[in-house]
Amino acid sequence: MYVYNSIHKIVICQACRSSILPGPERQERHLRVEPHRLPGDTLRTTVQLLSSYDLTLVIVINVVYGLFLYVENKDWSVPQKRRL
């Protein structure tokens, strides 16, 4: 359900094709809504797993033939486009 890329420090949720942001509060918020709606213990276990990854803050722009185009936006300045 989740793909972790340790080189680029991102997790992609395959169910909704979005990146999982770092931080347990953000991850829990993501997993509580559709299409996930994870219940109590499953939610806690999944957040614990996702929180164990070393993640960077990214915004996914587009997915083209399995290649993710994204901007790295750690300080909310003007981002640069990069290709994985």
From TrEMBL:
Keywords: Membrane, Transmembrane, Transmembrane helix. The chain crosses the membrane at residues 50-71. It comes from the Eukaryota. This is Uncharacterized protein. It comes from Calycina marina.
